[in-house]
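Let's study a protein:

___
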Amino acid sequence: MQGENFINSEREIKVSFGYQCNSPRGIPCSAANGREIWSGSEMPRTGSFSCLSGAALSANATLANTNICNGVIGGEILPSLDSPKSFRRVPSSPSLPRLDILSSSLQSSISNLSCSSPSPVDSPETDSFLLKPMSAPSRTDSFLNAMEVQMAGGAAGEDRVQAVCSEENGWLFCAIYDGFNGRDAADFLAGTLYETIIFYFTLLDRESKQNVPTANGCFEYFHDDGLVGNKAKPTSRIDGKSYASAESLMKKTADHKMEVSSDSFRHGVLDSLQRALSQAENDFLYMVEQEMEDRPDLVSIGSCVLVVFLHGNDMYTLNLGDSRAVLATYDDANDMGRTEKLKAIQLTDSHTVDNEVERTRLLHEHPDDSMPVVAGKVKGKLKVTRAFGVGYLKKKKMNDAVMGIIRVHNLISPPYISTEPSLNVHTISRSDHFVIIGSDGLFDFFSNDEAVKLVLSYISSNPYGDPAKFLLEQLVIKAAHSAGFSKEELMNIPAGRRRKYHDDVTVMVIILGTNHRTSKASTCV
């Protein structure tokens, strides 16, 4: 197939990892390099995914600064998490005392490794339980119930990609951090957000058993049991209610109480995702405040965030910015197996000024500012309306720390960039085939429908191939054609200069159901 072999040399591929689930009979998984990554007794399939494929292509020349948080992020945490060549088995509990770093604002005292101040995310009234000195909850006490996990991750330009799997417990965590103006924010997220999310997940049972409320006020999310295409999704709300324990979720019962418990548990998972992101944002901006005198560029550095978490038959998404999760699903009314019958459903919102809803919200939130959008960007700086970091558009103090063209000279009513994520939970059905998770660089060249059709055509003829890498190969072909180059000429342009023709691009493809096929992921620079 066209483009099959042009990004395949050891010189170009710097990171390559892969995962395929066991069969129902417990056949060992195989990584892309042929190594066995699971051995032992047979175990039942409890999840709704069969394999993962991913790839990332760099366009930006980025020398990541590793001195944030006194070098702990780049010098200790990321090396312990990154696995550039294959999924590797690691203990589910951190090998470093990272909870001292990640949950410092939840504690009454600060570890000497901490890079944040004890400023709680939520109000003292709702989080007083969390502020009490306490030991970190055990992973086996939570609904994740994993002693070990399979982990892989890497960087490409200003992007970071991360995947963590516990197949025996039926869950998969995937994240894309699309950094901008530098990679520090994406590195911070890669080094902290997964652990922060797990920390909040482990509190779900403890909070429910102690009847501790876990939300202050309300937040909105979407639960789409039945996909409705482009129609508006039903909105649900949560109002400071405690959640049912995970134990009750797992009990086999068909009565109404089970439905209530399941919905309450989903609320808890979504709330945990949101709280973890808010925690990470507070920690990052505090770190920026401490270090911006020596590194004023930190105030302009940020990242989009896309997290996809599969647990059982539920697929949760959290996003800030313009990365996307696109579900490929068949219309129940049609026969499966025909390309034209596969629908592309975008599960995430696009947080950009081009989105009329986002633009209207921005104008409504800044009535005293006649120019919140300048030249198609928020305050003339960013196209995205929601993002992690980018403190100079959120705090006057940080804007005042920079000079020249970076500084916003009329920052009238900050914050202008929101950290309120879009949240969604989708119950996976037999009609759902796969999910494409991608940074915006992918969708600069392909629509949702085009990406879905490319993946389907590829996996139909290459059952043991790498659909994510194939997407990148097709993107390079298209980018080269648009620029008047051959694909080889485009790939020979050094990173940095190549940004003129395409962005950093990160893609993951999750095959849903029980279709077993080999896959791998690659990061190319």
About this structure: The chain has a mean pLDDT of 76. The chain is about 25% helix and 25% strand.
